[in-house]
UniProtKB/TrEMBL annotation:
Name assigned to this protein: Tetratricopeptide repeat protein
Regions that span the bilayer: 9-29, 86-104, 111-133, 139-159, 168-189, 201-227, 239-259, 265-285, 306-326, 338-355, 376-397
Keyword Transmembrane helix among UniProt keywords: yes
Annotated source species: Litoribacter ruber
Keyword list, A-Z: Membrane, Transmembrane, Transmembrane helix
Key word Zinc-finger present: no
Length: 929
């Protein structure tokens, strides 16, 4: 028997410990699990300079879009706690069955009283709702009572000599088998869940009785401790007892004031869960003393101790159920019940101790051994007085404990319907529960979410506004502002968030969302100030602060460390890209992330800063993503990323092709993509094609014209269009461009820009003649440098050295002599060799010299290196679709004839007459055929 008792103590004590741990975890470590406020991610786009196009007179930024990611908190629908509820139900069922084992040992009267109380509480547990044999029939309740009470009653009546082990082998299995029997007979959806929810009401009744039992356990423990410390000493510990009791009572009174909604005047409030666990642990000491001093209804002290641990475990798990299901009425019922009993029973027990032991306490004798035996103020009278005191406290609180119990029951039913996917019934029950008891955050929030799911946003907003007026919660304010934001009522959303911050000052969720909405209406400084006042250790706040910096160009001198937060790092990349700096970190190992938006944002911002892999692998990865099913926006962003990656690799042919494909595929953004293509082509000095792209951009809605656009149009063969656009959109002309017809003298800038615009289709002599017309050293050097890249194949070694001399005349290039020399070596006719200059190696992909058709010398090197005649033809055919270099075209004519495709060669010759005079064309044919 002794071994069995110790084993029971260990098992039940361990169960209480486990329950205490998960209760604390649910309440304090992870309190928002059932009603989550989760950060959602949304993106905005900013333009960053991917590279600068040097046109001599301008450094034009070639702008692409980068992502700026923001995280705003969203109130999600309450999360189903089905598994936790089933665990709770099974635990209560098992503990109840185990309790009946010990009840079966009670004396007759106590057994009958206990059975009656059990049956009475069972009436509250909703077993009739199982609808066994018909709607709301009593068969479910009868089966429950027979399964749980009948075995204990039979053993108590006929087999009272049985040991506990035998009793347990009968009562517990029968009690547990009652569970599947009820589930089998019940036609309701998920009867196990229904029983688990309804057992909460039975457990609440058990818990209230347990609270009354431990009502004075704290004072009992204090008395025991003082008497032990005073053993053989004989000091006046009565004053210690009185002082500590007064402190404890004051603490309880302020907790009582707090839970009843009265002012606490800033007095620190003791957390009730910790107090409950402490008092519950002290109660075990009280049981130990009582079993030795008071006649008990059971034969062995160990039975009382085990029975106590079962009650403690039930109370802990009931508190846990209230916490994880966010059943606030149930939680308040337990808090009120615990505090009522503590105040009433502790006060009366204090009077009981002083009346009976005030003199003996100071004697140093072990008076705790007779603590419950005095007759002057009998213990039973003390408990009766405490019950009256408890009822007085209930009345002072307007009997709210009854409303709490009723609302708890309604919430439990609503949770069941919610979990079994019956939102209409659940919504009605949640509304009813909130109407009965307003401190009920889950009920109102769940009801609003259900109305939103049922496409009733007006009713949902009305409920949330009602909540804000009567019993505001952060979740409801967040949800209301989110609904208003989705309806584009930004100012209304800001109003409610501001009002929420008045109620919940410095709340991180409200402040964060308010800051993002203020950002939307361009109150950037106010938005940043809100975030700056919040915790610097919060990763979401850090990422949003960097995002505001980038979006609004504020506090740009402050560079924040994104630490290891991925979203903050993505925003930080945009920050560095905006400044044109290389970031001090790389996200090269983060290509595979779980969120598609994060994946696209990461690659876009990273590749805008610096690439980390080979262009072939990166493009293959993008193609693989495009082969998957994507939403239109996602597909557009993947295709944008392909343009970006090819631009970074100087694969101009593909970049232009992909950009034009985007303009065709996404008509709403066609103007943007035509403009992007125009700037790419302008960077390659193909002003004629760039002008055509700008014309299409204007037709498709592009309006942000600047002086450089007008110059490109003017020198790209569309001066009339340039004049119309300048007039229509009030765009400024370049200051150096002289539009007065009577003035025949060209400025230096005009001669330079005209030479640039005619560089691609020009012959060697035309290039040299135009260079000679430019007097400005810097402009002449720039023109010679561009000539080197586009026209090196026209010049022999000596002439290339002459170009080098022209280039180095400018102070800008004088520090680049080794680079220019290496460039000449790379471009001059002959076999391709990897340049030793790292800058050139990064610029030119030696594995594909045809990637930029405007680098004609490299294209011709690729043709020379290719052995297959048709492949030579294909290379040249692609190149002439971009580049009008006469030698390039002559090579195409030559190789088309060699391949037997005379018609295409003849057509090319005919086209060349559009920009090459007959004499020059004849000379080229004589020389190269």
């Amino acid at each position: 028997m002794r071994f069995s008792s110790r084993t029971n103590y260990l098992l039940l004590g361990l169960l209480c410990l486990i329950g205490a741990v998960i209760l604390i975890e649910t309440l304090y470590i992870n309190p928002g699990r059932a009603m989550p406020l989760e950060p959602g991610i949304f993106s905005e786009k900013i333009n960053i300079p991917l590279k600068f196009l040097n046109l001599g007179l301008w450094q034009l930024p070639l702008e692409v879009e980068n992502f700026v990611l923001f995280q705003n908190y969203e109130s999600l629908p309450p999360i189903l706690q089905t598994n936790s509820t089933l665990v709770f139900g099974l635990a209560i069922w098992l503990l109840t069955a185990a309790g009946m084992v010990f009840v079966s040992t009670f004396k007759r009267v106590q057994f009958i009283v206990t059975a009656v109380i059990f049956i009475g509480l069972s009436l509250l547990a909703g077993f009739n709702g199982l609808n066994i044999g018909g709607i709301n029939t009593p068969y479910g309740l009868l089966i429950w009572i027979l399964g749980m009470v009948a075995p204990a009653m039979l053993i108590h009546t006929f087999l009272d000599h049985w040991q506990l082990g035998k009793r347990a082998l009968v009562i517990i299995p029968v009690g547990l088998l009652t569970l599947p029997l009820l589930a089998y007979l019940s036609p309701v959806i998920n009867p196990y869940l229904m029983m688990a929810e309804n057992l909460s009401l039975l457990a609440m009744g058990f818990s209230f009785i347990f609270f009354a039992y431990i009502g004075h356990s704290a004072i009992t423990g204090l008395f025991f401790l003082l008497v032990k410390l005073n053993k053989g000493v004989g000091i006046k510990v009565t004053w210690h007892f009185v002082t500590i009791f007064i402190i404890y009572l004051i603490a309880l009174i302020f907790v009582y004031l707090d839970i009843t909604g009265n002012a606490t005047f800033g007095f620190p409030i003791v957390p009730i869960p910790f107090l409950f666990l402490l008092v519950g642990a002290l109660g075990f000491l009280e049981v130990h003393l009582k079993t030795k001093q008071i006649e008990q209804p059971y034969p062995f002290p160990s039975i009382g101790k085990n029975f106590y641990l079962i009650g403690f475990a039930i109370a802990i798990f009931t508190y846990w159920k209230a916490a994880f299901s966010v059943n606030q009425p149930m939680h308040d019922f337990l808090r009120h019940g615990f505090i009522y009993t503590q105040i009433a029973f502790s006060t009366l027990f204090f009077a009981y101790v002083l009346a009976n032991f005030s003199n003996l306490m100071n004697s140093g004798q072990m008076v705790h051994r007779v603590l419950f035996e005095p007759k002057l103020f009998a213990y039973i009278h003390m408990r009766l007085g405490a019950l009256i005191g408890m009822l007085s406290l209930v009345m002072f609180a307007d009997g709210v404990i009854g409303l709490q119990f009723g609302a708890s029951s309604t919430n439990l039913a609503a949770d069941y319907y919610y979990a079994t996917n019956r939102p209409l019934e659940a919504g009605i029950l949640f509304e009813n529960s909130w109407d009965r008891y307003r401190n009920n955050p889950k009920a109102k929030n769940a009801s609003a979410h259900m109305k939103l799911n049922q496409r009733q946003p007006t009713l949902a907003k009305r409920e949330l506004e009602q909540s804000l007026e009567v019993a505001p919660t952060v979740n409801d304010i967040i949800l209301l502002s989110s609904v208003l934001h989705r309806e584009n009522k930004v100012l209304d959303a800001i109003f409610y968030l501001t009002k929420g911050l008045e109620i919940f000052p410095d709340n991180i969720h409200l402040s964060n969302n308010l800051a993002l909405l203020q950002s939307r209406i361009n109150k950037s400084e106010d938005a940043y100030a809100l975030l700056e006042n919040l915790s610097a250790n919060n990763k979401i706040i850090l990422a949003n602060k960097i995002g505001l910096q980038v979006k609004h160009l504020i506090r740009f001198e402050e560079e924040m460390d994104p630490e290891n937060d991925l979203i903050a790092q993505i925003n930080s990349l945009a920050f560095h890209n905006q400044k044109g700096n290389i970031a001090p970190f790389s996200l090269r190992d983060e290509k595979e992330v779980n969120t598609p938006l994060l994946e696209r944002a990461l690659l876009t911002n990273q590749w805008s800063n610096q690439t980390t892999g080979t262009v072939g692998d990166d493009l293959a990865f993008i193609d693989q993503k495009l082969s998957e099913e994507n939403a239109p926006q996602a597909e557009e962003e993947w295709r944008q990323l392909r343009v970006l990656r090819t631009l970074q690799a100087n694969r101009i042919n593909e970049a232009v092709e992909y950009s034009n494909g985007l303009a065709f595929g996404f008509a709403g953004s066609a103007g943007y993509y035509h403009h992007l293509t125009a700037m790419i082509l302008a960077g390659q000095l193909d002003f004629e094609k760039a002008a055509k792209e700008l014309q299409q951009a204007e037709e498709k809605g592009f309006r942000n014209f600047k002086p450089e656009h007008l110059a490109i149009l003017y020198y790209g063969g569309k001066p009339d269009l340039a004049m119309r656009i300048a007039l229509q959109y009030e765009a400024d002309w370049p200051e150096w461009l002289n539009l007065e017809e009577e003035t025949a003298v060209e400025t230096q800038e005009e001669r330079f820009f005209h030479a640039l615009s005619r560089l691609l289709p020009a012959t060697k002599q035309e290039v040299l003649d135009r260079i000679a017309t430019v007097d400005d050293v810097d402009m002449r050097s720039r023109l010679a440098y561009e000539t080197l890249w586009r026209k090196a194949h026209w010049f022999d070694t000596k002439e290339l050295e002459g170009l080098k001399t022209l280039i180095l005349q400018s102070p800008t290039f004088q520090q680049e002599e080794s680079y220019i020399s290496e460039l000449i070596t790379m471009l001059k006719p002959g076999e391709w060799k990897i340049p030793s200059q790292e800058r050139l190696e990064r610029t030119v992909d030696g594995s594909d010299l045809t990637a930029n058709a405007y680098w004609t010398p490299l294209v011709l090197k690729a043709v020379e290196a290719e052995e297959d005649l048709m492949e030579k033809y294909n290379i040249l055919q692609e190149a002439i679709s971009f580049n009008r270099d006469p030698l390039l075209w002559i090579n195409f004519v030559k190789h088309s004839r060699m391949a037997g495709l005379h018609q295409y060669g003849s057509e090319a010759l005919s086209d060349m007459r559009g920009w090459v005079d007959d004499q020059t064309l004849e000379e080229l044919q004589v020389k190269h055929f």
